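dumping this here so i dont lose it
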């Protein structure tokens, strides 16, 4: 991608005005997106992005610049321009780059460019036919297929020089049910950090039928009641509440600025003793997994909360300087156009001992959120509201009837403290997470949980 000699010249130029650390991030990414509406291909877009990001640190002060002109002369010029914002004690630097070899943990057999568009469209048509034939009430389908191959080179003034290849694929399946003027939808988006052999192994029809079943169930549902009540949140996409309302508050981006309810609480009880929460960037072929983070550090399994006690944060190199703590291999960015910062990979509440059947049977009355939808959150306070995509009323230990239009409203840390049942059915859902360093793939996960009281907004 870039020669070691050129990278050394760029790093030295970045340190000329007194910076104490410099980093080069090189990215070469090819990607494609195909969208099918009602069984017909609507759009197909592919492209390639190549660029270089250069970062200079001096203590906790950071400067970032990027360019897609990768000639030596331009890269040295960009590095020197970035360095002009740094005014530190100047030293004679010598940089000894040592190429690191990484062990790839995520199997890649079939590269995206080795798979024809016809084959990808065949996978999509299978999803369309399975969903549209589920029931006459299904009026429309939308299938989106995405894949990318990202090759990166990361080097820094500490001597790091490492390269990595990331390949991901995902299919987002949406089904729409219509009855009169009413419309409801169901969605699933399975994906992996894996070659496109993932789709040969995927039960595409099962996921497609599940989106149609959700849409059909909700088109016939009554409106949900409102008020404070127990809430059962199922696995997989239920983890979005922990991810958004709690996970972002555990990132150094917030903690280092004291803009998080979790700041200064290490060792304290912040959740129910039933709750253990983990962020793991090493899960094999996980959607949010990486061999190395976007600063070149190996990813880790980071225990954030253990039996209710706050054990750690997610920390990047700059956050480590600000907090006086070690990096946790949690630096991520959307592309070379973004400076890295602390982000989640695959974040989940660990499995407990209760079965889902036991949780339902031991609940007198509750809202059961089978699938969660979108929402909003204040990461500083943890206040959130999330839509329930598919919901039911539980009464006397049985699922009584479907309801729609429910919204869960609360504060992340309070929800953690009110969890009184944790299931054994851990599952993951794939999504995209947005923050100051752009949009990145991230898994959310949890088993079924029961929250003793939560505010439900209805119609």
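and the seq i came up w/
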């Amino acid at each position: 991608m870039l020669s070691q000699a050129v990278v050394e010249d760029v790093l030295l130029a970045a340190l000329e005005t007194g910076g104490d650390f410099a980093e080069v991030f090189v990215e070469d990414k090819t990607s494609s997106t195909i969208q099918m509406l009602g069984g017909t291909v609507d759009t197909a877009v592919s492209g390639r992005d190549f660029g270089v990001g250069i970062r200079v640190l001096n203590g906790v002060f950071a400067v970032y610049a990027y360019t897609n002109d990768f000639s030596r002369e331009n890269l040295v010029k960009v590095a020197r321009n970035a360095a002009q914002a740094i005014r530190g004690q100047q030293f004679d630097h010598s940089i000894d780059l040592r190429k690191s070899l990484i062990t790839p943990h995520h199997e890649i057999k079939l590269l995206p460019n080795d798979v024809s568009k016809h084959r990808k469209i065949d996978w999509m048509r299978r999803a369309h036919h399975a969903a549209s034939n589920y029931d006459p009430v299904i009026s429309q389908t939308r299938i989106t297929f995405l894949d990318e191959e990202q090759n990166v080179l990361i080097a820094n003034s500490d001597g790091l020089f490492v390269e990595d290849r990331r390949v991901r694929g995902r299919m987002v399946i949406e089904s729409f049910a219509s009855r009169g003027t009413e419309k409801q939808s169901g969605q699933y988006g399975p994906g992996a950090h894996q070659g496109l052999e993932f789709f040969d192994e995927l039960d595409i029809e099962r996921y497609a039928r599940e989106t149609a079943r959700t849409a059909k169930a909700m088109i016939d549902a009554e409106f949900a009641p409102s008020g404070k009540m127990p809430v059962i949140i199922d696995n997989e996409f239920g983890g979005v509440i922990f991810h958004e309302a709690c996970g972002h508050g555990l990132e150094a981006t917030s903690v280092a600025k004291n803009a998080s309810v979790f700041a200064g609480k290490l060792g304290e009880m912040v959740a129910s003793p039933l709750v253990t929460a983990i962020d793991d960037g090493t899960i094999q072929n996980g959607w949010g997994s990486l061999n190395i983070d976007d600063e070149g550090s190996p990813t880790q399994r980071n225990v954030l909360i253990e039996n209710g006690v706050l054990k750690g944060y997610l920390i990047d190199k700059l956050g480590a300087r600000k907090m006086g703590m070690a990096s946790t291999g949690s630096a991520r960015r959307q592309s070379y156009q973004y400076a890295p910062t602390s982000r989640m990979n695959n974040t989940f509440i660990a499995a407990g001992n209760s079965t889902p059947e036991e949780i339902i049977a031991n609940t007198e009355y509750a809202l059961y959120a089978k699938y969660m939808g979108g929402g909003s959150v204040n990461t500083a306070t943890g206040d959130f509201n999330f839509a329930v995509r598919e919901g039911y009323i539980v009464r006397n230990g049985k699922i009584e009837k479907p309801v729609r239009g429910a919204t869960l409203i609360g504060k992340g840390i309070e929800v953690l403290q009110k969890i009184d049942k944790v299931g054994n059915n851990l599952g993951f859902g794939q999504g995209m997470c947005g923050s100051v360093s752009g949009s990145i793939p991230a898994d959310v996960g949890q088993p079924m949980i029961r929250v003793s009281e939560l505010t439900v907004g209805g119609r």
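The longest strand covers residues 160-179.
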